[in-house]
């Protein structure tokens, strides 16, 4: 089993910044993908950013140029640096971990990000 714990959500004004973090523990394998999803009211959960253990990253078009995903050197903590936040970034953000050897997803508890004046 893998356990994910998230930190860093909160209230921020439009144009502001927040950084989310997620730390994985348990049966971690070296080849994996970690990422961030979000779910806003009335919307489907969507992929925001992904970080492959080999160093490749990807982003949703809506956040390109504003958000950055990164990892600590040990590979078990992932961050999402969010800049120039917009009201439509408001959502619950979920950390995700997927080992390459298993067709299974693990999820963090979710953290609320609210962008409002």
Can you tell me about this structure?
A hairpin with a 5-residue loop joins strand 7 and strand 8 (77-82). The protein is mainly beta and 117 residues long. The strands form two sheets. Strands 2, 4, 5, 6, 9, 10 and 11 form a seven-stranded mixed β-sheet that branches. The protein contains no helices and eleven strands. The termini are far apart. The model has no long low-confidence stretch (mean pLDDT 95). The protein has strands at 2-7, 10-12, 18-26, 32-39, 46-52, 57-59, 67-71, 77-82, 91-99, 106-107, 111-115. The radius of gyration is 14 Å and the shape is globular.
Brief digest:
The protein has strands at about 1-5, 10, 20-25, 30-40, 45-50, 55-60, 65-70, 75-80, 90-100, 105, 110-115.
Assembly type: single chain
The percent range for helix content is under 10%
- Please tell me what the overall shape is: globular
Encode the helix/strand succession as letters: EEEEEEEEEEE
The percent range for strand residues is over 45%
Structural class: mainly beta
Report the total helices.
0
Separation, N- and C-terminal Cα atoms: 40 Å
Q: What is the radius of gyration?
A: 14 Å
Number of strands: 11
Main β-sheet, in a few words?
A: 7 strands, mixed
As residue ranges, the low-confidence spans are: none
Q: Averaged pLDDT, please?
A: 95
């Amino acid at each position: 089993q893998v356990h994910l714990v998230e930190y860093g959500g909160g209230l921020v004004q439009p144009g502001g910044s927040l950084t989310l973090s997620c730390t994985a523990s348990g049966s971690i394998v070296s080849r994996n993908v970690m990422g961030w999803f979000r779910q806003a009211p009335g919307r489907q959960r969507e992929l925001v950013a992904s970080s492959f253990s080999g160093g490749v990253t990807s982003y949703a078009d809506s956040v390109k140029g504003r958000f950055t995903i990164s990892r600590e050197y040990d590979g078990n903590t992932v961050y999402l640096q969010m800049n120039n936040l917009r009201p439509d970034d408001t959502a619950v953000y979920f950390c995700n971990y997927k080992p390459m050897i298993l067709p299974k997803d693990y999820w963090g508890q979710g953290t609320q990000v609210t962008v409002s004046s």
